[in-house]
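Hi V.,

You were right to ask for the full record rather than a summary. Here it is.
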Amino acid sequence: MDRATFAFSTAFFRDFGNPSPGALPGGHVDFIDKVDSFTYSDFFRDYLIPNHPCIFSAKFTEDWSSRKNWVTWDGKPNFEHLLQNFGEAVVPVANCDVKEYNSNPKEQLPFKEFVEYWQEYIGNSYHSSRGCLYLKDWHLHRAFPEQDFYTTPVYFSSDWLNEYWDAVASDDFRFVYMGPKGSWTPFHADVFRSYSWSANVCGRKKWLLYPAGQEEFLKDRHGNLPFDVAAPDLRDKRIYPRSSQSQPPLEIVQEAGEILFVPSGWHHQVYNLEDTISINHNWVNGCNVALMWSFLQDELAAVQREISQWKDPMDDWHLQCQLIMKSCTGIDYKEFYNFLKVIAENRISVLEKGLDEESSSQDNSKAAISTLGMLHAVFDLKRTVKVLSSLSANEDFRKLDLSSLSPSPEALLQHLEAAIDTALL
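Predicted structure:
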């Protein structure tokens, strides 16, 4: 057993439940400064399982090429370098001054046009007739895979979302954000109630975070969440009758180079205090996959309520509900099954065939499993079994045509349980 595996093997076989809401006494957030001594098992035990936020110091990103090349000597965005490398790209840009269906509307712009706007915006004392534009959710890693501008810290390497979407080659959840001082992101929780990590390449951000569950107190009389939790009308009990019951948000100022770990299901609102560039990943793993499954069930229930009047006259009502849910969330129950299958089969392959250096160096998922150890693979399988068992027994899942799923859910469960038993011998 290698040292890393030994260090957290005990934790992996404890019967952890779902991540807790993660409220912090006194609003304290730990600051992680010791690169050499802070281990993955420390992060797993103290932050992933309790679902607590933390901040990693700039020491954890000081070797990134983006920290060296995307930033000028005085800590500002290096527009000249960025234009040389990405000038011809087309990027998604939101207008922070406009509200459209509880979000900021986006348009696709040439990157060089956005940079030109940004420079003019700075020169005009941060004003423009075009509003405050914010480059958001840019899949830069996918668009320029040959460029090694950062390295995912080991603490975030058990990343099932990107492992799956890399495997099916259809999407990813790795993003770059670039925006001027004053740009911001409205109140939200991350996709699938995932964890996220966000690193400031340059600039500073202010975060307002609410532990999971607190958002229920912030809903208006119709059950809708606020667009802006800092708006004065949130204190109007006629509109938001339970807002006074909410805890105050956890306020964090994130400095240049620092990484913030955002727990699963925590709603948040974010402001750029300076001209800022950041790198962000959304990620799910064995610690919070049950929350992802709960989120999907809630989303389907909401769709079913919305179109309940069409249940009787519509022969394929259950299928239509799945289609609507996928259009809103990006995934339906059958793809969630395939998601679990890919994750499970990757780990079964490692347990059955072992890790050879050549294959693991060519496969990012195997490389991550190799780094974290065999017992982590077993932990992942145990968590997958729990969620897959629940999915397989789910009434809405069983009403779908499952003949296209290979292997069948029952066969996959048997395979997983056998692989776990064999690994533990």
